[in-house]
Amino acid sequence: MAIAKAERLMNLALCLLGARRPLSKRELRDSIEAYVEASRPGGGAASRPDKGAAGSSDDSFNRMFERDKDDLRELGLVIETVENLDGEVGYLARRDSNRLPPITLDAEEAAALGLAAKVWQQARLAGAASGALQKLRAAGLPEDVDPYEAHGALEPRIPVHEAAFEPLMLACRDRRPVLFDYRKASAARPEPRHVEPWALECWRGHWYLAGFDRDRGAERVFRLSRITGKVRSRGTGFTAPVPDVVTVRETVASWAGETADRSALIRLRSGAGYPLRAKAAKVRELGNGWDELEIPYGHGLDAWLVEFGPDVVVLEPAELRADVLDRLRAVAEG
Fold first, then answer.
1. What pTM does this model have?
2. What are the Cα distances from residue 77, in Å, to 70, 133, 172, 257?
3. Cis link prior to 190 (omega < 30° from 0)?
4. Which of 14, 38, 245, 277 has its CA at a distance of 20 to 30 angstroms from the CA of residue 1?
5. Range in 102-111, 225-234, 277-286 with the lowest mean pLDDT
6. DSSP class per residue in 13-53
7. How far apart (Å, rounded) are the C-alpha atoms in residues 83 and 97?
8. How far apart are CA 80 and CA 78, in angstroms?
């Protein structure tokens, strides 16, 4: 029976970490059982190989070893390639290059991390949060710090109601493309979207996914509440490079109209739309239960204004008014 890949990677990592000198491919091949099995003709036959079988087994081992070496490097193991005086290449993972510094936490830092774990004590992420707390205990979380103890009247909590959250979170972690049906605010019916997911972000109480839309060939942001049906995984890898630092919050903010170089004039019902009032540059009372506001106008503002329904009337510019009306008609027809 073939040895599991995880065990093979672990054995290779232990060999490289435990070696006092660089090990050649030949030495690694003879030291790890999975490579010995791969080197045999037929993947484990006991008969003596002929020349063709030997060449095939060499190719099989070389491909397996290169994949394993790349996988370990992707997981963070620093593997050095060293060439000796005879020109033979060897591999070594020095312990000092692969050792994490000791983790020290004071009471305030430990309490902050414990409080962050408490935020995720919900059905979908309770297991992961509990595991994180166990690691914090091992790393020095003081025993007298109880992260689940009430610290005030406010209860820290991030709501996760969308069924798409968990599969998308796993897809972001594993770098797996996904396929889902998505209904835009201006559309009556959902459309299939093929996305390489980068990261998730909570913004104004809603969850968003930032990633690369393969069909449109560009970065896009998706609101999870507009994903319909199941999120399906696709086995192929990413085709677009993932940014070193995915600034999802800034991306979502720009799509939500937070970055704007123009202004819009709206009429807002008195006592309503407090988020709009917080963004307003000017507010003027009109009487009869209405106020006039001047607010920043950027990409995505039309979708945000639609959420306030009959409490908002767009006065100008004309294109923003037309976009809001189109979205309202689509909602009424859908």
1. 0.46
2. 10, 25, 21, 42
3. no
4. 14
5. 102-111
6. HHHHHH-SS-EEHHHHHHH-HHHHHHHSGGGT--SPP-HHH
7. 19
8. 7
